[in-house]
Amino acid sequence: MLRSIGKKLLELLLFFLLMSVVSFCLLKLVPGDPVRSILRVDDVAVSNEQLEAMRDQLGLNKPLIVQYGIWLKQLVQLDLGHSLITHRSVFTEFAGKLPYTLSLTGGSLIVMLLIAMPLGTLSALYRDRWIDRLSRTISLIGSSLPSFWLGLLLIQLFAVRLRMLPPMGEGSILHLILPSLTLGLAMSAVYVRLIRSSLIESASQDFVASARARGLHPARVFLFHTFRHSLVPLITVFSGSMGSLLGGTVVIEVLFAYPGIGKWIVDAIAARDYPVIQGYILFMSVFIVSINVLVEMSYRWINPEIASKGKEIG
């Protein structure tokens, strides 16, 4: 047990080290100069001496390996550095933007669950009936619409014509509704079909037929046997969706001018703000790895066979 935990920790350490090297080197290969963005060369006349002085001040003239060593030393001390544009701590800026993105992510997940769970479940229970055909049609239409175009349609309807909701920005929970609807509707189109297929596949298992043969109540069979078994593929896909959802908020946050991590990183990329971009990449890496670890742990609770196999292997 301790050996497997140690092996896992070593793998995670090597993964983050490799990710830090790749992200640092790739950013240096991206065309553009952060110094020109800082000094606003396009708006103000700046001499070459001023550009070189700024590069020396920021340490950008040092060899690449030296820059990486300095950055890695700060990272070990849990210091992500400071933004080249705002001069504020990257961690402080990140902590200020994270609640907005988490609120948007949570709102979109609620919308997705309220739509996908009922439609997917009814579609599986009443297979090939009108509710099944309706839910599959809705799912097909939803998956065919780009999220940014769906967002524009919602803005046109609820903000411009009906004047019920604010079109963009932040300030109250009303500002969260349209972006949450946009992301939630886009996700629900995928999960309706996934829930339907997972429930149908689980209902055909031998242990479900055995539970019915023992005379268990249909609701108990569905909840503790069919639905529980269907959670394994659902959680697998959901773990992947969490990373793409957090990254997918970039388009929606820019569209709705919502001040979350997505809009923050887009502005940082445009300004070649290297410390912010590197901090964002590391955060996404930690987030995705953490989600995968939690999903692996949940498998052992949902399907006891996985836990027993793990013990046999260990």
Describe the structure.
The structure is a single chain. This protein is mostly helical. Helix content is 79%, strand content 0%. It contains 13 helices and no strands. The longest helix has 38 residues. The chain is flat and about 85 Å long. Belongs to the binding-protein-dependent transport system permease family. OppBC subfamily. It is a multi-pass membrane protein. The complex is composed of two ATP-binding proteins (NikD and NikE), two transmembrane proteins (NikB and NikC) and a solute-binding protein (NikA). It is found in: Cell membrane.
Key structural traits:
single chain, 314 residues, mainly alpha, MetI-like fold, 2 domains, 13 helices, transport, transmembrane helix, transmembrane
Q: What topology does this entry show?
A:
Blueprint: H1 2-29, H2 34-39, H3 48-58, H4 64-76, H5 90-125, H6 130-144, H7 147-161, H8 174-203, H9 206-213, H10 218-255, H11 261-270, H12 274-302, H13 304-313
Domain ABC transmembrane type-1: 98-295
Organism: Paenibacillus forsythiae
Protein name: Nickel import system permease protein NikB
